[in-house]
């Protein structure tokens, strides 16, 4: 099992750099920095993370092909690859509709758009010219082939990820989600002349760990509330969650009643949409994900009530694998 960790660039960047360095020291192999227009810039953050670390692989987890032209992303990725001496991985997904609505960007044909933009980036990162004549003259990736991972959840996106990328980052925390996802990724991989074994299947979880399991659960409830709100009906059904429960939470969040939404998050929702608790609770949950075919466990937000302490506790968990 590989281990990754997620950071949202919505706190001081130098604090993120320190936390990524700590994650590297305790055994994490990947650090993923999210990309949302209303947070700090993902590439400036990754540049400082590159300078502040030595071995951990780093990358956007995930950017999208709509807010930046693929050539701009390719240039940024090649720059981070240079700064990190060949440790970058490009994480890219379809982005989210709420952001594009706020930015006045039309979210069209996400699967085709991702395929085309990834092909353009691969051309540029392998030091070639695109049909339209784009070429990275002043920056070159260190790696012969920069690994590309896709953020994906829907069936078409999962198949596409299996077909064209080296890894899939799936916003999910429960083995049931991977029972559904892996056959689709396998189908895509085989359509691309590969095997599922060639694809790093990452559980990009909502994670919260603390010595005090209650505190860990408490820190994750609001995140689970937002996940429940955004989960499509087939996902709710898969976890036996009544649409009305998710609807109620959405209504409470919509009114800004975060306390009410947190109060509506029960154990069933926590189990469906998060990996939470004390260190001993984590080992069987990660093993269960591994048995379902997950090959990378990503400790996603909130990580825990006290991030530094949680990263150290996760280091103890990693050392048992
Ligand atoms: C577009 C969407 O794909 P999806 O993968 O389910 O999108 C949900 C998320 O993956 C997407 O919002 C991500 O960008 C969210 N996301 C992040 N989004 C961000 O904006 N920033 C982040 O930092 C971020 C991190 C992240 C990490 C892991 C992860 O799994 C997702 C993450 C979808 O609806 N897919 C369906 C339908 C696809 C579709 O649109 N088909 C159309 C068009 C087909 C074509 O394009 O040709 C059609 O059938 O006509 C499907 O896959 O079946």
Automatic annotation (TrEMBL):
Its EC number is 1.5.98.2. GO terms for cellular component: cytoplasm. One of its GO terms (molecular function) is coenzyme F420-dependent N5,N10-methenyltetrahydromethanopterin reductase activity. Keywords: Cytoplasm, Methanogenesis, One-carbon metabolism, Oxidoreductase. Pathway: One-carbon metabolism; methanogenesis from CO(2); methyl-coenzyme M from 5,10-methylene-5,6,7,8-tetrahydromethanopterin: step 1/2. InterPro entries: F420-G6PD/mer, Luciferase-like_dom, Luciferase-like_sf, MeH4methanopterin_reductase. It catalyses: 5-methyl-5,6,7,8-tetrahydromethanopterin + oxidized coenzyme F420-(gamma-L-Glu)(n) + H(+) = 5,10-methylenetetrahydromethanopterin + reduced coenzyme F420-(gamma-L-Glu)(n). It is found in: Cytoplasm. Its main location: cytoplasm. The keyword Metal-binding does not apply. One of its GO terms (biological process) is one-carbon metabolic process. Residues 11-296 form the Luciferase-like domain. Belongs to the mer family. Catalyzes the reversible reduction of methylene-H(4)MPT to methyl-H(4)MPT. This is 5,10-methylenetetrahydromethanopterin reductase. The lineage of its organism: Archaea, Methanobacteriati, Methanobacteriota, Methanomada group, Methanobacteria.
